[in-house]
Automatic annotation (TrEMBL):
It is a multi-pass membrane protein. It comes from Philodulcilactobacillus myokoensis. This is Guanine permease. GO terms for molecular function: purine nucleobase transmembrane transporter activity. GO terms for cellular component: plasma membrane. InterPro entries: Azg-like (IPR045018), Azg-like_bact_archaea (IPR026033), NCS2 (IPR006043). PANTHER family: GUANINE_HYPOXANTHINE PERMEASE PBUG, XANTHINE/URACIL PERMEASE C887.17-RELATED.
Length: 436
């Protein structure tokens, strides 16, 4: 049996073994398990049942890992994307006042389109048309947006009547939990400690319970929370997508997922040494894994699923085959029995994770050619537009509209792919519709 598994996952060819792959799977899980507790907190802001979101997140993550590992044979774990769950909760549901049931239906429709585009390889065509500089700006902009949400949730940044935002009050006890978690995470990350984010969340939760800022749960293990509040809700509300604004929301889910998954997959593939002649072998299977997981996730009741950048931690300790994420998927299923910990993982506990992930995503900014203004201007609009408009889609729209204009002005219009011109026009209508 062991030999069959080793042969199936090509252990010998990839220079790996059961011990390495198992350790890599555990490391990947420890690095990303915080999403089980963070995602319910973010989506819970929309009124969704946190227990149901917890279970949906775990099952969607497990399924995504299994498909990616068994079908594509890559050590790339999947789960609910931080950028997309923030867009779902704060931009669509809270900002645009769209009911979460309708937003889930939007995710489902977008995921079906996602699968069709993947099958016809249109995703690769569109992704190739977007300049690398703008892809990097999108990753960095989402990082700033996520970090801003973390600073706000943790009480470090608050609304200010005189200058819009300001430093939060340090006299608020719970804010110090955020500060403690942030300092610990930064120290552990600097020391290259695996699962630094998860360890920090545990220590911050313990500190909160010891200081009585967080209530101690009456139990630690329980039965799996029911999926009933969110299960198949997306199907029941497809008819609610009955306005041009909601159609734009669906297209935005689709558009943002394009960049989120593509950028992450390319980065992980490069880290693991899979990129050959500027191509990623079996990329079609990897994209099929994430699009299938996105469909299932929407039916279970969670925001879009995509490749998780924390997979880099498992790759760093030697994970090279799909068996790595099969192990991760099994651990996600076991994690469903620990839902009582949801009450322990408060906004102040998860805020440092958001801030740190934002920092990591901002590293993509180094790839932008800032010395060329025609590139720097649209990239900067994307980067600054996301946190300041509190919307990922608005930031992307500003940059994509500006890009053809600056390139034409710089007499480089012929270098702009026709698809980028089309996207610019689409985004002009997108912003116009949002104002209606």
């Amino acid at each position: 049996m062991g030999e069959k598994i080793a042969n199936y996952f090509h252990f010998h060819e990839l220079g790996t073994n059961f011990r390495k792959e198992t350790l890599a799977g555990l490391t990947t899980f420890m690095a990303m398990v915080y999403i089980l507790f963070l995602n319910p907190n973010i989506l819970g802001a929309t009124g969704m049942d946190k227990g149901a979101v917890f279970t949906a997140t775990a099952l969607a993550s497990a399924l995504g890992c299994f498909i990616m590992g068994i079908v594509a044979n890559y050590p790339f774990a999947l789960s609910t994307s931080l950028g997309m769950n923030a867009f779902f909760a704060y931009s669509v549901c809270i900002g645009m006042k769209v009911p979460w049931q309708t937003a889930l239906a939007g995710v489902f429709v977008a995921s079906i389109i996602f699968m069709i585009l993947t099958a016809f390889k249109i995703r690769e065509i569109v992704i190739d048309a977007i300049p690398n500089d703008l892809k990097s700006a999108i990753a960095g902009g989402i990082g700033l947006f996520i970090a801003f949400i973390g600073l706000s949730d943790g009480g470090l940044v608050v609304a200010n009547k005189s200058n819009l935002v300001g430093l939060g009050s340090l006299s608020v006890s719970t804010t110090w939990l955020t500060i403690f978690g942030l300092v610990v995470t930064i120290i552990l990350m600097s020391m290259r400690v695996p699962a630094a984010i998860f360890i920090s969340m545990i220590l911050t939760s313990i500190l909160g319970m010891v200081t009585k800022l967080i209530p101690i749960p009456t139990q630690w293990v329980s039965s799996v929370p029911s999926l009933k509040p969110t299960f198949l809700v997306a199907l029941k509300h497809i008819g609610s997508i009955n306005s041009l604004q909601l159609i734009v929301v669906v297209l935005t889910f689709l558009l943002v997922s394009f960049f989120d998954t593509a950028g992450t997959l390319v980065g992980l593939a490069e880290q693991a040494g899979f990129v050959k002649h500027n191509k990623i072998p079996r990329i079609g299977k990897a994209l099929a894994a994430d699009s299938t997981s996105m469909v299932v996730g929407s039916l279970l009741g969670t925001s879009p699923v995509g490749a998780f950048v924390e997979s880099s931690s498992g790759i760093a300790v030697g994970g090279r085959s799909g068996f790595t994420v099969v192990v991760t998927g099994i651990l996600f299923i076991l994690g469903t029995f620990f839902s009582p910990l949801l009450g322990v993982v408060t906004d102040q506990v998860t805020a440092p994770a958001l801030i740190i992930v934002g920092m990591l995503m901002a590293s993509a900014l180094k790839n932008i050619h800032w010395e060329k203004f025609e590139i720097a201007a649209p990239a900067f609009l994307i980067l600054i537009g996301m946190p300041l408009t509190y919307s990922i889609s608005d930031g992307i729209a500003l940059g994509f509209i500006a890009y053809p204009i600056t390139m034409i002005a710089a007499k480089r219009g012929k270098e702009v792919n026709g698809i980028m011109y089309a996207l610019a026009i689409i985004f002009v209508f997108f912003l116009w519709i949002l104002e209606k």
